[in-house]
Amino acid sequence: MIGTDTISRVIGQDVYDESGEKIGSASEVYLDDETGQPEWVTVRTGMFGTKESFVPIRDANLTDDGVRVPVSKDRVKDAPKIDTDGHLSPQEEQELYRYYGMGTGTDMAQPMTTTETTTGVAGTGMADTGRTETGTVGHDTSGPTTDDAMTLSEERLNVGTRSQEVGRARLRKYVVTENVTETVPTSHEEVRLEREPITEANAGKAMDGPAISEEEHEVVLHAETPVVEKEAVPVERVRLDKTEVTEQTQVSEGLRKEEIEVDGDTRDRDGRR
Q1: In angstroms, rounded to a whole number, what is the distance separating the alpha carbons of residues 109 and 96?
Q2: Which of 23, 102, 175, 254 has the most CB within a 10 Å radius?
Q3: Which residue(s) pair with 62 in the sheet?
């Protein structure tokens, strides 16, 4: 059970339905002026928490995770749309009691024909002092009996942003082969014929051997050839980085609003038609 001493712990907490599914977050707690006990909590639901719905907390429980209410999320989603203006009129509270199948609650929830006490809102855990209202009973041709005023509503545009994945960048390396031409100097040996006359200095060697004979003399020739070796060396490091760019984006949406027109013979306060 949630009492007046735990109201401050309710406001701002996550609200879960009877199956443990999150409904939204608690905004305000409404006290019953007859008993002074918490009767309703407004729960912010929808995108960006723009919608508030009344949820009964008479039999709700306050846990470490938040507030557990004895109704389903779908039930709250379709709850009657009632302005969170600080008070619930008897008619509004009666409508909520009927919708959630809670009976009529206290005497103040009966259809208002005379001066009756309304239900107040508590934002700090203090009960409202209560106030009395008298209203002229009117007849709504499209639904139940209401007071003498018609509420006009309009849609408001609430624009925000959300982050979503739009693409991915991947860094990949692959191997290509290109031809590289280098010039390398190479040397080789060639045969050169040298002649020298017979002199006293070489006459002994010249006369060594037979006078007339056949003979061969061999010389080994050498030449340089290019030698190619390849080695892999690191030349650069590459990484992917992200930068955030902000741009202005226009959003267009059609908004509906209610207007009023009067049928029949009407006069203003000065008696003019």
Answers
A1: 10
A2: 23
A3: 67
Does some domain include residue 257? Answer: no
- Read off φ and ψ for residue 253, nearest 5 degrees: -150, 140
Position 42 confidence tier, pLDDT thresholds 50, 70, 90 = very high
pLDDT band at 135 (very low <50, low <70, confident <90, very high): very low
Structure tokens at 2: 């949630």
Let me know if residue 46 belongs to a domain.
Answer: yes
pLDDT at residue 51 in the model: 81
Q: In 33-137, which ranges are continuous DSSP H helix?
A: 73-77, 90-100
- The domain of 32 spans 4-133
Mode of pairing for the β-strands spanning 14-16 and 67-68: parallel
- What pLDDT was estimated at residue 271? 61
Cα separation of the two ends of the chain = 57
d(CA 12, CA 49): 12
